[in-house]
Design brief:
Blueprint: H1 18-30, H2 38-54, H3 63-96, H4 103-119, H5 122-133, H6 138-145, H7 149-169
Helix pairs in contact: 1-2, 1-3, 2-3, 4-7, 5-7, 6-7
Length: 173
């Protein structure tokens, strides 16, 4: 049986109707998302609904309720990102005002780091040097070494933790 395609009104493919969009905006606003970011939040909800349909998942039973839950989650994500940004700003501010170590302190630290690097297993030392001394991103390290990005991240985490523990043990930092 052939289906005739009917002509749709503009915006008919929009997964959110006007009432649902207002509800999403209200949930985002009540969640503390600034007015300037509300259109982006509404678009994110639309996108998630369209992605769900594209994957072949069936539409939510109550699109309005589903959209409100997604909007609430987006508001929480917005706050988490804001807190991360604030913490990053604080860390960067503290890095801008370093106490200038003396040449002797700098030499001691360099020696301790070099000794700590020597004690690391080769795979950990390799990713640490490529990441922090060669300034390569994780993806490039993984490609160069032929290992998954997760392995690079795991080795980096373990290496940094071990090096930090060594520096604390030696009371260098």
């Amino acid at each position: 049986m052939l289906r005739r395609r009917t002509r749709r009104a503009p915006g008919a493919d929009d997964p959110l109707d006007a009432t649902q969009e207002r509800r999403v905006r209200a949930v985002l606003a009540l969640g503390g998302v600034p007015q300037t970011d509300l259109p982006d939040g509404v678009q994110q909800v639309r996108l998630r609904l369209l992605e769900r349909a594209a994957k072949g998942d069936e539409a939510p039973r109550d699109v309005s309720a589903w959209a409100a839950v997604v909007a609430s989650n987006l508001a929480m994500d917005w706050h988490r990102a804001k807190r991360r940004q604030e913490r990053l700003g604080e860390r960067l501010a503290s890095l801008r005002q370093p106490a200038q170590p003396s040449d002797e302190e700098s030499s001691v630290l360099s020696l301790a780091v070099a000794q700590g690097l020597d004690e690391l297993p080769d795979p950990q030392r390799q990713v640490l040097v490529l990441r922090f001394y060669a300034d390569l991103p994780v993806r490039d390290i993984a490609d160069e070494l032929g290992i998954p990005e997760g392995t690079v991240k795991s080795r980096l985490h373990t290496a940094v933790r071990a090096l930090r523990a060594r520096l604390h043990e030696d009371e260098v930092v």
